[in-house]
Amino acid sequence: MSSAFLNAIKKRRSIYGISKEHVASDDVVKEIINEAVLHTPSSFNSQSTRIVLLLGEKHDKVWELTKDALRKVVPAENFSPTEEKINSFKSGYGTVLFYEDQEVVKGLQKDFALYADNFPVWSEHTSAMHQFVIWTALTEVGFGASLQHYNPLIDESIQQEWSIPSSWKLIAQMPFGKPTMAPGEKEFKPLEERIKIVE
Questions:
Q1: pLDDT tens per residue, range 82-104
Q2: How, if at all, do strands 94-101 and 168-179 pair?
Q3: 144-145 and 49-55: which strand pairing?
């Protein structure tokens, strides 16, 4: 295993302070998305992951929609910290929306009935792998990112705004931008408690 690959994994962290400053071209970001979707594995080679990449004003819009949705459920007197948090994501360069196509999942459930209960779980695994690959690749070109989960609260407004197919299920949102702060110290539990080697 190459040290470059392991180093890339180590560098990927949750970065909450991000800005709109230019780090890499939009073409580089699009290439990362394309390569990740083409080459990240999926259960039964389902290729069920769907990605929406939002840049520029579209990126800003998704976080305004998120604020609008949160205003409906967060009391006005408590909204200031929530707004500040959402604005920190909006201050970034772009957002990756991760979806899983439920039509693909249902098709697998029909074709492989023995594993029907597993396919929704395996779909989540597939999405997680795409999240990890894209996150790590964005880190490698100089972006900072974090993973957010405001779904299903924002699902309907996003679907209407960008004509997202109804079969696509929103899994996560990844705002990214130029890092403006270092990640926090990471604590590691002992490997002896997490790994069992049988020789």
A1: 999 999 999 999 999 999 999 99
A2: antiparallel
A3: unpaired
Distances (CA, A) of 45 to 38, 42, 54, 139, 166: 11, 5, 26, 26, 22
Summarize pLDDT for 109-162 with one digit per residue, the tens. 999 999 999 999 999 999 999 999 999 999 999 999 999 999 999 999 999 999
Phi, psi values for residue 41, rounded to 5°: -70, 160
In whole angstroms, what is the distance from residue 143 CA to residue 22 CA?
9
Residue position matching structure tokens 């609260």: 153
For residue 8, the surrounding DSSP H or E stretch is helix 3-11
What Rg do the C-alpha atoms of the chain give, in angstroms? 18
Q: Cβ contacts of residue 68 below 8 Å, gap of 6+?
A: 157
Tokens standing for 34? 């394309």
Beta strands (DSSP E) in the chain are 18-19, 49-55, 94-101, 144-145, 168-179
pLDDT greater than 60 at residue 1: no
The predicted model gives 56-63 an average pLDDT of: 98
**What are residue 9's phi and psi, to 5 degrees?**
-60, -40
